From TrEMBL:
This is Iron sulfur domain protein-containing, CDGSH-type domain protein. One of its GO terms (cellular component) is cytoplasm. The keyword Transcription does not apply. The chain crosses the membrane at residues 6-33. GO terms for molecular function: 2 iron, 2 sulfur cluster binding; metal ion binding. Keywords: 2Fe-2S, Iron, Iron-sulfur, Membrane, Metal-binding, Transmembrane, Transmembrane helix. The keyword Amino-acid biosynthesis does not apply. It comes from mine drainage metagenome. Residues 37-73 form the Iron-binding zinc finger CDGSH type domain. Pfam families: zf-CDGSH.
Length: 104
């Protein structure tokens, strides 16, 4: 009854993806650049699924509309956290660390 293909069903893949994302969020200590500020739209049968591409969704891999916070960025670089966003002004280390200016 243990068929190897059953392990890779779409439900199990979604669960494994969610676990991998959660583990990465807990253990990842690097910045990841997301340049897209709108979701990927995937057509599955009659449904249109919106997948997060900005990296800010709380419903990953699905879009929750968080990308709307990034629409005014232009060519500037920002770091997002729970308090809002910070504009990156330099990656060169100073005595006080990486220079970041918080944008309210």
């Amino acid at each position: 009854t243990d068929h190897p293909d059953l392990f890779f069903s779409s439900i199990n893949i979604a669960i494994l993806y969610k676990i991998a994302i959660n583990v990465c969020l807990i253990t990842m200590s690097r910045l990841v650049l997301h340049e897209r500020n709108r979701p990927y739209m995937v057509k599955v049968g009659d449904q249109e699924i919106h997948l997060c591409a900005c990296g800010l969704s709380n419903s990953k891999p699905y879009c929750d509309g968080s990308h709307k916070r990034t629409l005014d960025e232009g060519s500037e670089l920002f770091v997002y956290d729970e308090q809002g966003r910070m504009k990156v002004t330099s990656f060169y280390k100073k005595v006080e660390g990486i220079q970041l200016r918080r944008i309210l």
